[in-house]
Amino acid sequence: MARGYPDQIYLEQMSHEEIAAALAQGCTTVVIPLGAVEQHGPHLSLGMDADHADALAERIARRRGATLVAPTIKTGCSSHHLPFAGTISLRPETLEAICLDYCTSMARHGFKRILIHSGHIGNFPVLKDMLGRLREAVSSDVEILAFTDSTTWIDTWRHAVRDAGGDVAAVGGHADIAETSLMMVIRPDSVRQDRFEVGHLGGLSEADLEMMWKNGIRSVSANGVIGSPFGASREIGEACLAAVADLLIETFDGGTPAGDARR
């Protein structure tokens, strides 16, 4: 980082003296990444969303400067994936309690801007609902911002996939060409290319979404994939990472609002 800020951006890898020094130098923004531990079809690992959130947080912090990264909250709200083995789901009130404790801890230490994003789109409605209460829990000079606009997020993936030469029809939002490509960049050994399967194609209607939230993802996709992983590549993954990082930074730093990103 410039202007004497520390090169290390991860709170958990710094000493308390190093964090205090960074705060004194004006490094008063912290990113809180949210993930999930849930099925991602037969070809991706359950930790995909947490890995994605980690990667986005690093890009945000290094590009913004004067920004540190809190430990990723790896497990999220994934009840609609519980029929698949291994999925772990927090209750919404549990996730809110963890986010509340993170935010009040960060505010106590002197962080003035807290930026929250999730690599798991299923956390978005829970995060949107809790945001006002998180803000009420800290003093008025602390700003808490969160990205919760799933439509803009997936549209950003579609544009990135198209620009990188991929098939936009394969974008569905879960274990699809975008997420599979992301993992080819972030954790390539976790991508099981011999297990690619097409999932639900054509996007989810409001009725589909209601059915999924009520009855689980198997009610709209038997294999847990929404979209298709076929055609995934590192080039598409890099394009998707860059595009969503741009979207988050623009939103957090005062660009076009997306979701309830402002105080």
TrEMBL record:
This is Creatininase family protein. The keyword Zinc applies. Its cofactor is Zn(2+). GO terms for biological process: riboflavin biosynthetic process. Keywords: Hydrolase, Metal-binding, Zinc. Belongs to the creatininase superfamily. One of its GO terms (molecular function) is hydrolase activity, acting on carbon-nitrogen (but not peptide) bonds, in linear amides. InterPro entries: Creatininase-like_sf, Creatininase/forma_Hydrolase. Gene3D superfamilies: Creatininase. The keyword Signal does not apply. It holds the Pfam family Creatininase.
